[in-house]
Amino acid sequence: MLSGLDLKAVALLMALGVAVDWLLGEVRRWHPLVGFGRWAAAVERRLNRGGLRRAKGIAAWIVVVLPPVALAAWAVSAVDASFAAAAALHVMLLYFSLGLRSLRDHLLPIAAALGAGDIGAARALTSRIVSRDTAGAGEPDLAKAAVESLLENGNDAVFGTLFWFLVAGGPGALLFRLANTLDAMWGYRNARFLAFGWMAARTDDLLNWLPARLTALGYSLLGDTRCAAQCWKTQAPAWSSPNAGPVMAAGAGALRLSLGGSAQYDGVVEQRPALGSGRAASAADIRRAWRLVAGTCALWLAVVAACAFIIEGIMHA
Fold first, then answer.
1. Domain for residue 135, yes or no?
2. CA 150, 151, 157, 163 torsion: positive or negative?
3. Structural domain span for residue 115
4. What sign has the CA pseudo-torsion 253, 258, 261, 267?
5. How many Å separate Cα 136 from the centre of its chain?
6. Given 64, 104, 185, 191, which is the most exposed site by the fewest CB atoms within 10 A?
7. Beta strands across the sheet bearing 257-265
8. 189 with 265: CB under 8 angstroms?
9. Distance CA 148, CA 293 (A)
10. Eight-class DSSP state of 157
11. How far apart are CA 198 and CA 228, in angstroms?
12. Which residues pair with 264 in a beta bridge?
């Protein structure tokens, strides 16, 4: 919990952080995460060579992640005597770490392009958010890619960040987002990153374990609950990621869509495990997936606020 603040204050700051993200959206210039990504890439190029790559990857993770998180924690501690200053800093850190509005701004234009029949624009927009090949993709493949991205990034860019904000305030949200960003950059199971990216992948797995399951629960409650629960139980274990599996299986089941399956990466078709149950995704389902993510965010905020009032009532009874 945030030092010196009760749960009602935490709930308020969490809601303010989401509101600021929604109103302002992604920082257009000098975004801290963009600068972090460039710094991480430079460190990786310097260290990811020769022997002892796992040890170098651990050292690189520490060098890249801990200084900004320690600086954020120090700044919060330095202004802790002033509620207004501390609250503003926590909200700012949460805003920089959140990506709810960014998900909408990047994904809904794909639905609009598909709805207008502009397949070229839809391919270009989708290629900006996924690593799979989109040059020859049709509407079903593009819609599937967009929905999968929304469901998975709902956890990575929104709910995991909110969870760690609840645990440790702005520095906690920042820690999660930086660790998740490094996993996206270094957590590949290929020759270049298998050893070097071990720390990035394992740390993200650990930090994401509980948030991912809470995200899957939120998706399940706001969609087809029975189908979501069944898909979560039977399909999630087939995915190599212990956290993406529950999130995406539950989300696909909640929407009653069939996701997963074949996808092309660097010219090679990969057959991934099935997700969900029902029909193939279409352009309209991108908006349905967005509403599921946004609704789950609202549910999280409502639950935290309700818990705050209940706990306060019990303490003052």
1. yes
2. positive
3. 7-315
4. negative
5. 27
6. 191
7. 268-276, 257-265, 279-280
8. no
9. 12
10. I
11. 31
12. 269
Q: What is the DSSP string of 15-55?
A: HHHHHHHHHH-S-SSS-HHHHHHHHHHHHHHHHSSSS-HHH
What is the pLDDT, as a whole number, of residue 17? Answer: 97
Neighbouring CB atoms inside 10 A of 87's CB total 19
Residue 2 lies in a domain: no
The CA distance from 317 to 312, in Å, is 8
Q: What tokens does 76 get? A: 């919060």
- The CA-CA-CA angle for residues 107, 112, 113, to 5°, reads 95
Name the packing angle between helices 83-97 and 53-78 (round to 10°): 150
Residue-level pLDDT at 1: 44
What type of residue is 77? Answer: S
Residue 1, domain member (yes or no): no
pLDDT by residue for the chain (317 residues), tens only, comes to 454 468 888 999 999 999 999 999 887 777 788 889 899 999 999 999 988 999 999 999 999 999 999 999 999 999 988 889 999 999 999 999 999 999 999 999 999 999 999 999 999 999 999 888 888 889 999 999 999 999 999 999 999 999 999 999 999 999 999 999 999 999 888 889 999 999 999 999 999 999 999 999 999 999 999 999 999 999 999 998 999 999 999 999 999 999 998 888 877 888 899 999 999 999 999 999 999 999 999 999 999 999 988 887 787 76
Contact 98, 17 (CB under 8 A): yes
Answer for the pair 137, 126: CB distance below 8 angstroms, yes or no.
yes
- Among 311, 317, 293, smallest CA distance to 146 is for 293
DSSP string, 230-283: HHHHHHGGGSSSTTHHHHHHHHHHHHTEEEEEEEEETTEEEEEEEEESSEEP-H
Place of tokens 């590949």: 188
User: How many domains would you assign to the chain?
Assistant: 1
CA distances from 16 to 12, 85, 86, 89 (A): 6, 14, 13, 12
> Cα–Cα distance between 285 and 304 in angstroms, integer?
29
